[in-house]
């Protein structure tokens, strides 16, 4: 019944990096890899291999181009193993620094070996908390010096050197217990997710709220679904055992906006239940995901608005930085398509007026409306809540596989650069920040939004190519009888095709051509961008306080530095159909 | 284009990546130049007196062991093992790693190290003790099983929970090494199951599941404490516990239902009133849980305790835990509980693609049972262009599952969605197919309006230029019609009308087949003959598949004609072919058919009776004539077969059998129906029947509900707090260790007041902690949650006390050591 039998890691060229066997006699990595690769892409995360001995369930994840495989000969909970694999990559990243690179693992096999040994004991997952692992495994030296620079303790906890005091009892769970308690965890702190003896020279804490947009727009522009997936990343660099209280606010009430939250185990669930929006927790040391949530931007009444009788403008209002609309089957032959990008002028940012790169604040209640970000972002001037800025605008237009090329790709007013990528069979239209700014500057007054258009014309594979496709065997691929004749009777082909060309001039032939070209039309377009300093849900941090009474080890009167950053991301998240 | 590829999109831009890569590549190159040390030099490093050198050597050996086969690193075995006694923890750890990897190859040499490891079991550093225990149990050399067992025994009584956890995890390893140690191990295990520390209990449950998942009798005394600890365990402990609890719940709490709701009796006295039910029956009652039906499931209070404890886990960040809770609710709880888990299940769709995939399978599984609950979450099931096939396939299935339960508006939205993908799915032919099939499944709803709408939608596809779409649409239409032919007469007519629009030969062929199939439905008012008439006109221009079907249609129409108008006398119909054959360019004279003599024999009685044959007969003959000169031999052959079959109008039995055989009604259930039997959260659910019917190896179905009266006495669970059960007692005595004695001694004084009946020191240890703290507090006092720990420790300043406890700890440690020393002596004597 052991769940984790072995772990194999391969680099981007599929050369084995690491093989760790935990229990049993699983097939070796060299046996499994070809079988894994033999599976057609995209490969699911769980593949059943009946031909190995014993028949194996192969779990896989790919992280930073590294491939992690985990065989299992028994029926276990798949998510348990997949979660474990993710924790492995998290831990490796935590210790070796991200992104996870093959060379990093190769340079620190000793650390990796210790980590893997601690994480699984005899096939049973035993410990995956990064902080708890830090208590028992030394981070590699270069990381130590690196972390020392940012304020992490440069010395390891004393418990790691046996010559020192054998127990680091700084944080006994309940000091009153005395030895009769039987419970003290000498190396581990009372909080399983927090390292013992955390010391920082400068105390800092940062909240990053990242919301990922998932918006689907119908061809008419009406939103079908609009979900923002939020993640609160927290970075705590605070000495002792701090007890923090983070208050989130949102226009209209946090309880109405935020749904389906998930929390790091450190969050006191009852507190959230009693007072939504308040997160009370003892954080782990370092960066971690505090919570995840989801916001339905349309609201629950969205469905009622979706009906054929309601005019399009009565559709729920959606405040999205950028949307696209696609028109297909344009032009005389119906082979053209047009993509219109609409930018919300609100998000132009203020690149002209440089703000201080970081806005610092301290003390209670210091977090408010005008508080900036940039503490993480570095030098960017724009991207504060006052002037949210759009970045990295890319529009993808996936095209059917039959499209050979796209000609006459032209973006209006030189906005951005569009290319057809045959390998992925899509058009990629990227608009850089300067061009966005220029567009925004042009349309200052209208208020209707900023427009940019891209026009292109698809060229499908010619007919004979089409017949080589997999569907040819079905005899289904031909569209007309003439066409079929082309195939069966070769000598007639010339005549038939000329007939067809003649027909193009007439209305009938045109319609047929349009119909044929319709197959090559894009069916959707997606927009990717990031906006700093703005969240679609309107969630914001009201306050972040250290509970001085409950906290320990943080000197009296020490006010940690606090920073908040908001980021809205769309990774092909805004999708318009056509 | 896997979503996980984008996971770190924003965090690490491509430029960062390349920079990092370049730097690291430089680093790695620098290292590799020094990495290739000759083995002699490496041995020298390992033998060195300097700790730093040894460490360096070990690092290299460990690195080698990952990159090269064991044969390369085995020569260093003795050199490495020599360092096992090193005082440096760093060195020790690396030696242990090496040992675990290589012990099997050199069992004899590995045994030499056992003594040193054993000594480490009494080290002052709990981390080292735990490590030693882990390594000792991990060396796969069966000879040492007894030693390992003793090590576990010591670990079970250790003061550090870290060591106790290692002991718990060592138990299944020891069992694998030597199954004869089972009795002792069970004792240790039952002690650990009652451990106060959350993560120790979690590990103990995991060990329990590994070693003896069926010994539920060990669980009874700890059931309640385990349930209470559930929320504070680490996620892996929660997983193990929930897996255990589903089994335990099914085997220990008989399902009861009640007619009228009565106040719950806390004790089992009133339990015989209800009727017992297995899950299947219970699900029936669940469905009918409307106000008018009073039958509701009555939950045992202990079971309710578990179900309520699970609520907190629904917000776990670990997707496996969420699924495990859903499984608990599904198989143990009531629909009310299940509805709590729906939202959290949906929230799993936020996660990385690989997890999302598995989560979707589980969502579908729940949705098959409770489609109603998922209707409001429809936005999550809309397919996105970035979804890979294995994701959208499941999403489409979910959309169709909720379709019958959705409001009309949502139904139109779903249909619009599906038709979008069926039109634009030229991106992926598979998506087209799946979308069209989904429309077909949607049309199976009871509402005839919706059904008609779906059908209309499908019919619009027939004229499309997308061959996949047309073929699949017709396939689905055919299924729909075949399933309910009587209601689809008009559909056939409509389909026939679409013959004008349909261009693809395959599509035409399908339509013609359908028309032929229903040619006999309504004899007086059937279009088949008319369709045939029209088709025959353009026969020469049809493609071969369509031609084949036209011939078949003609044959069917003719058979129906013969059946409907049987020749008045046996001889009569036989003459029919005769005149018509003469009418049609006397093709009988060709004489190429085997059946010629037969028809020849027939016309004798009255050859010239009818001048003009029935139009159908004429059509049939015309078709036969046309096909006779077709270029395709296949068509010619078939026509010949049909002709032979139908040559004698009086005997159409064989033709009826061949041409009008009833076709089996195609079944198109939801694709996941086949997996319905598999347990939520199992790998078999994801793999399906591919893994063999009945699940993969190690698959375990949820046990059936225990029958009323056969369940274990609930008192077993009750009584553990006041008086230990005998078995537990025995375990307690046996596993008594120095540390426990110490605990007992320390706890004895304060506990004396409030604690009676705790005769054995083993159980005193179990309860001692609480008593030590709270003096005369009742034995019922629960374990404190983490929050309580924190709050209490926060109430007072701890610095001075820390030192105090530090000293105490140390002194106790010495005692332990001396105790253990004597223990070791014992063993040596043995």
Side by side, the strands of the main sheet of chain B go: 2-1-3
Query: What is the CA–CA distance across the termini of chain A?
Result: 50 Å
CATH superfamily of the largest domain in chain A: Mu homology domain, subdomain B
Number of helices of chain A: 14
Strand order of the largest sheet of chain A: 11-13-9-8-23-21-16-19-18
Helix fraction of chain B, binned, reads 55-70%
Name the pair of protein chains with the most residues at their interface, and give those residue counts: A-B, 157 and 177 residues
Overall pLDDT of chain A = 73
Number of strands of chain B: 3
Main location (chain B): membrane
Keywords (chain B): Membrane, Protein transport, Transport
Protein name (chain B): ARM repeat-containing protein
Family (chain B): Belongs to the adaptor complexes large subunit family.
What does the model show?
- The complex is a heterodimer of chains A (578) and B (830).
- Chain A is α+β, with helices and mostly antiparallel strands and 578 residues long.
- Chain A is 22% helix and 31% strand.
- Chain A is built from 14 helices and 23 strands.
- Chain A has helices at residues 29-38, 78-96, 102-107, 109-119, 130-136, 141-150, 254-257, 269-274, 302-305, 433-442, 463-468, 481-488, 493-505, 507-518, and strands spanning 6-10, 16-21, 46-49, 56-63, 66-72, 120-121, 124-125, 204-217, 223-237, 244-249, 258-263, 278-281, 286-296, 322-330, 336-343, 389-398, 403-411, 417-421, 426-431, 450-460, 524-532, 540-546, 561-577.
- A nine-stranded mixed β-sheet of chain A has the order 11-13-9-8-23-21-16-19-18. A five-stranded antiparallel β-sheet of chain A has the order 2-1-5-4-3, sandwiched between helices.
- In chain A, strand 14 and strand 15 (336-343) form a beta hairpin.
- In chain A, helix 2 (78-96) runs antiparallel to helix 4, helix 12 runs antiparallel to helix 13 (493-505) and helix 13 (493-505) packs across helix 14 (507-518).
- In chain A, 53% of the residues are buried.
- Chain B is elongated.
- In chain B, 62% of the residues lie in helices and 1% in strands.
- Chain B has 42 helices and three strands.
- Chain B is mainly alpha-helical.
- Classes of the chains: A alpha+beta (578), B mainly alpha (830).
- Chains A and B meet through strand 2, strand 4, helix 2, helix 3 and helix 4 of A and helix 1, helix 3, helix 6, helix 8 and helix 10 of B.
